[in-house]
Amino acid sequence: MHCCLNSFSAAYLVVREMKECTHLDYIKEVKPVSEGCADCIAQGDTWVHLRMCRTCGYVGCCDDSKNKHARQHFHDTGHPLVKSLEPGEDWGHCFVDEIYMTLDGEPLEASEDADDPLETSEDADESAGVVRSYLVIAGLYTLSASLIWGVNTLFMLDAGLNIFQVFIANAVFTGSMALFEIPTGVLADTRGRRTSFLLSVVVVMLGTLGYVAVAGAGGGLLAFSLMSVVLGLGYTFYSGATEAWLVDALNATGYKGELDRIFARGSSVSGVAMFVGSVGGGLLATLNLSIPYVARAGLLAVVFVIAFFTMHDIGFKPRAMKLAKLPGEMKQVAEASIAFGWHQTSVRLLVIASFINSILLFWGFYAWQPYFLELLGQDLPWVAGVIAALISLAIIAGNSLVEWFTRFCGKRTTLLLWAAVIQTVATVGVGLADSFWLAVALYLVVMATWGVWTPVKQAYLHQLVSSEQRATVVSFDSLVGSGGSVLGQTALGRLAQTQSIAAGYVVGGLTSVLVWPVVVLLRRRNDEADVIVGTAGVQGACAAQGIPSVSGVDTTQTATVVAEA
Question: Fewer CB atoms near the end CB (10 Å): N or C, the chain?
Answer without folding.
Answer: C
